[in-house]
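Carbohydrate binding family 9 domain-containing protein, Undibacterium fentianense. Tokens?
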Amino acid sequence: MKVFLLVFLSFVFASSTAQAGFQAHRLQAGEHIKLDGKLDETAWLKANVHDEFFQTQPFDSVLAHLRTEVRVAYDDRYLYVGIKAYDSVPNDIRDSFARRDKISIDQDFFALYIDPSSGHKSAQVFYVNARGAVMDGIYSDTSGDDTAPDYDFNVSVSRLDDGWSAEYKIPFASIAYDKHSTTPWSLLVLRNMTREQRYRMYSGAVTRATSCNLCFSHPIEGMQDLPSGMNWNVTPQLVVRRARDEVKDKPAASNGSSDLSLDLKFRPSSAVTIDATLNPDFSQIELDSPQLSGNTRFGIFVQEKRPFFLEGADIFRTPLNAISTRSIANPDVGLRYTQRDADKDFSILTSRDAAGALVLVPHTYYTGYANSTSASIATDARANFRLGSLSLGGVLTDREYAGGLGYNRVLGPDFVWQIDKNQLMRGQFLFSSGNAQVAPNGDIAKGQNSNGHAAYFDWSRGDNEWGMSVNLRDFSKDFRADNGFFSQVGFRSVNSDLTKKFGRNGALHEVNVYLSTEYKVDSDGNVLSKIVAPGIRVAGPYDSSAYLNVSPSVRSRVNQNGELFTIGRIATGFAASPGKQVARMAFDMTIGDVIDILANRLGRGGSYSLSAKLRPLDRLEIEPSFATNWINRDLSSLGSERAYTETAFQMNSIVHLSAKDTLRLILQNARTTRDAGAYASKVAPESSRQVSSMVYTHLAGVGSAIYLGWTRNQSDAPGYSAKRRQSELFTKFSWQM
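Tokens:
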């Protein structure tokens, strides 16, 4: 009788209250939600149902072919979201094991995009897949997901006879919001399902052409009297390590150490977060993937992954990389203040960076580096004001080098204007000033003051038939931002893209023909590059995509007084998600004329890369990747003698021992070979670097974990530097209180 009553009530409430938006149900006295993923409590039956979902992939602008139900509830401490996904073939649900923040598009998952400001500029995102693995972070339409931030929340899933369901329990303390705002929060829900096709289904009518997914979110009505109480946590961390350093023909050196660090997070109100760190340890951040850099003139951007720098990271994100916290290489103390109100955001970060770091010094034709022989104080601040569809912001950065070695400062405004759901305009202007210059010995030293500027503007618009964008950049040669990431200055450029969309064609879901152009000159008016590159992109079954890009006559200059080369090349690639065992595979290749930068010479060559995500067993993930570049000595044929070859390989393997225990093995190998006779200057005929890492991790919760591991680095450049091997055993304990 009880089961019949529950079913009847569920039918009545679902039929009578289903609507386009979200209506939150406040839990009454005696009502509670047991987090088991089943949505069978009376509170869920009283909650309004949102069941209008739209498909954007593989078919665009149509109602979803399967039913999805969303319910929202809350009490004095938590926001609850219940989701049920109906499935006509529930045995095919992709419920793969995954580490935190490693959910991927080959799995069945839900994602909540929660925007407390309803500004439609950014949102906190909470993922869960059908196995119960989670991923979280910050999302913005201009830069996508940043999954580095971790929030304290719980979610449970349940497999059903007709699909699967999930129950989220998110503490209000994990969401940054203005308690006094009268504007309802916004919510967008994504359901991802991968079979012979990848299906993306949203709770709003999101289209492929839009530049503003969050504009299709719906308000959450009915949430009142939300908490604004103080809360805090402190996370001590203890690292014990034993290291050994071996250099050929020298005695081996061994040493042991133990370090204690402390992270503090204090929230005096729901809108304000204060973070502090003392002697932070970042040793267990996952290894950055090896990148080909031997024939590259410019520095390569690396994403921030260190926990302390992640609070409010979206606020620091602007059209230009004015703030890049990876420039703070070795902080020993740091403090951050972040405030999020209904119509504005503000964050300021200051930290002391120990001596010994490399400072990025960009030029027109290459990226240089300088040694910071003293400690420095790095301060970054940004404010962002939301005025309807327009956001106005400002950036201020300062780097003060100890010992009177000088300073570097950057200041400037930026804006983002979401003209409509398909049209976006952005811009930023930065002014730099500083007297921290590069001395002849390569160290940072006080010198003459220099000023510079950087300007950026872009506009994009798209619909179901056409897509177009224009990008303008102007960087003076004296611009420098020691707290940001700029690999090149001293140029002006115009880039444009025009795409004709032909829609569905037989088995293909998308057929797009495009034309990309670039015109770029240095500060003296010399042409750096001229590109006209037509191409075609298609998408098909199994979330597959392919492209072909032809550049018959690219003009490029790599040295200030060098030749303006004429280059012809072809680029192509393919990616697909064949099934659960071969979850993803991708291939990219470019072939044709290549400039050998070190020799300032044109030769035949190219590059290709392959990567895959494999799950041969339910608890085993293997992610191999391989990339190579090569250049022949001349243009006579593709089979000419090689002047330069570079390869990079990584094998990342994960064994899921349990939901909280993983064993990770990473093997990396990078190798470069050159024909010394093909270069006027002295070069290393061969250099290599190998990295091995094995780490056992037990995650007890956010901020609480145990790491046990071993790493080894080996480098060798015969005739140039002695073979060196470094190894380390470590144990790390982290516990949040």
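The longest helix spans residues 2-17.
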